Amino acid sequence: MTDPTVQPHGSGRTARLDLSRPDIGFCAAHFSVIEGKLERLHGHNYRVSIRAWGAVGADGTMVDFGALKDALRAECAELDERMLLPGESDTVSLHVDGDSVEARAGARRYLFPRDDVRILPVPNTTCECLAAHLLACTRTRLAELPVRLEITVEELPGQGATLGE
Q1: Is the predicted pLDDT of residue 1 greater than 80, yes or no?
Q2: Mean pLDDT of 18-42
Q3: Which position among 1, 24, 94, 121 has the lowest Cβ density within 10 Å, counted as fewest Cβ atoms?
Q4: Through-space distance between the first and last CA atoms of the chain, rounded to whole angstroms
């Protein structure tokens, strides 16, 4: 006898997939401006996870885990071992000159090799802004997939931000 509460695959069910692996993330340096105060230059071993919601198809799947992993790893690779700078900040000014990037914030002045920097389209390099950036970039990579996404960026285990669409 079949259970009447169990629906067959592809019959309008939705699912949530969670992908949180210790090998998905990036190491990067940054500083943030929090409530008008400039943090010291420092770095984190960021962990990144993704959650997807969508309809379960006739084959019993919503999305291939491989597609999620590939997209997220590619975006993390862009940030790995880089100095992250906010390209849309009212507080941090940036000047790119040949092979260098100058960042000024308050009385501080930093000069970085251009190849070591990622200027991001964000107002700050907080976990919230990094999660929003990764969400937008990952969505672009997965555009054809009819799923809703949520990305978490943790700078320490248990300390981070989650943004969804």
Answers
A1: no
A2: 95
A3: 1
A4: 41
